[in-house]
Specification:
- Helix content is about 45%, strand content about 20%.
- The protein contains nine helices and ten strands.
- The strands form three sheets. The chain has a five-stranded antiparallel sheet, covered by helices on one side. The chain has a three-stranded antiparallel sheet with strand order 6-8-9. It has a two-stranded antiparallel sheet with strand order 7-10.
């Protein structure tokens, strides 16, 4: 296993290419349980038939845990959108259609989205009254069993030279309500200060799926609170700001 060709680097992980393999090497401080859970999520989503990199093995390299998957040759959708702004609508159509395809799958062994969100809300720094309101709102939302990516954004989609899309990074995958997944993607666009794209994305998804926009918006405080537990301080502040918003127009 060669670790000399870096293709991506994050705070707690580095991705290397070794021929036809992609090696995601985690820092020694990263939880073994989280590494194994990510590999398990990916393996379970593989079984749905979606275009995703297949897990080859979980092992140790340089004393650190690693997930070895198929390397997917291509360019991220985010990179293509930056290079070809004139094709934004075309790329957004692909982006939404692919998310709808994901939501059309089920993987009964994935963790449940509501369970994860309840746990995350309890971990926030929000006051007890706000946490209670968020827990109650979450309980009241319909329970579904659709595959939800949990971090669906253009940087997690690779388009091969033949034009085939692959979705990567399934560490946050759960089974649950698709509109919660959409709310998360909407907030990711907002975090990147892409407000116009966020609105265009939400409108397109709702039109294609005949989903009421207000229904997705009801998820925003819940998703923002649950996602605020991790991340950069400035992102946490932004997300916590959404937890206090009651009405969306």
């Amino acid at each position: 296993m060669k670790l000399d060709n870096v293709i991506a680097k994050r705070a707690e992980k580095t991705v290397y290419r070794d021929g036809d393999l992609a090696i995601k090497l985690f820092e020694s401080s990263f939880s073994k349980a989280n590494v194994l859970n990510e590999a398990l999520n990916q393996a379970r989503v593989e079984e749905t038939g979606l275009n995703i990199p297949k897990v080859n093995e979980v092992c140790k390299a340089d004393g650190k845990w690693a997930i070895v998957s198929d390397f997917i040759e291509g360019e991220t959708l985010s990179s293509l959108m930056e290079k070809h702004p004139e094709k934004e609508d075309e790329y957004l159509e692909l982006f939404v259609d692919l998310q709808i395809e994901i939501h059309g799958k089920t993987a009964p062994l994935l963790n449940k989205l509501k369970d994860k969100m309840h746990r995350k809300i309890s971990e926030t720094t929000l006051d007890a009254t706000t946490r209670y309101e968020l827990h109650m709102r979450l309980d009241s939302m319909p329970t579904h069993v659709k595959v939800c990516h949990g971090d669906y954004n253009p940087s997690n989609i690779i388009i091969t030279p033949e034009g085939k899309p692959f979705v990567i990074d399934w560490s946050h995958a759960t089974q649950g309500n698709a509109s919660a997944d959409v709310a998360r993607t909407y907030l990711l666009f907002k975090l990147e200060k892409k407000d116009a794209l966020a609105e265009k994305y939400l409108n397109l998804f709702c039109r294609k799926t005949d989903t009421a926009k207000q229904y997705v918006q009801q998820w925003l405080p819940i998703v923002a609170a649950s996602q605020s537990v991790k991340g950069k301080p400035e992102e946490r502040e932004f997300l916590l700001g959404w937890t206090n918003v009651v009405d969306y127009e």
